[in-house]
Design a protein that fits this description.
By secondary structure, the chain is mainly α. The chain has one domain. It is built from two helices and no strands. The protein starts with about 25 loop residues before the first helix and ends with a helix.
């Protein structure tokens, strides 16, 4: 949360001041963006900006982040 919320939003379904909504982001996208500041093959970015820094120290957290964002996605669809 400390690394994502400043640019995205504490509600993953909403765009942040700099970054797009990240609700439901797949693990491959998270790995590419968070660890390498890239995109998976054949992925179309939501925004053309190049301001996201790399966070390689978060590699062990990627699986948990992916589950969290999927859970947020499921909760939103249940409402």
């Amino acid at each position: 949360m400390a690394n994502c919320v400043p640019c995205h939003n504490n509600d993953p379904a909403k765009d942040g001041p700099i970054g797009p909504a990240i609700k439901g982001s797949p693990k491959k996208l998270l790995q590419a963006r968070v660890l390498r500041n890239g995109y998976p093959a054949n992925y179309t970015p939501k925004r053309p900006t190049k301001v996201m820094p790399q966070f390689p120290f978060l590699e062990p957290e990627i699986p948990y982040l992916a589950v969290y964002l999927r859970a947020e996605s499921a909760q939103q669809s249940e409402r």
